[in-house]
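A favour, since you know our structure tokens better than I do. Just paste the record in under my message, thanks.
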Amino acid sequence: TVLKVSPMLERNCDKDLKAPFIVTCVGSLNSATLALNATASGGPPFPSYEKVKSFDSENFEICSLVGTLSPMGSHLHIVLGRADGSVVAGHVVGNVTVQTTAEVVQVGTLSP
């Protein structure tokens, strides 16, 4: 299962949820594409990242996932734990593939 941001945005629109953001997420992944170490250039809303790395067929624990959701471009940061205790972290710039589950807690305000 691929964790996709667009279905979350569609649910937000259906419920008139404004300014949505992810508070936390736990679960596990077996692939992710991340921009490492704040290497953005070009500025918002569409930065280009200089150091992008794909992690494929590697089991990760989701230690943290936070950020904002927007049709104009979401801004998500993730911290992933490896079996040896090391971590990898960065901006989510591609799909992440859920291994078992991803329990995403999302918050926003309702339109009046």
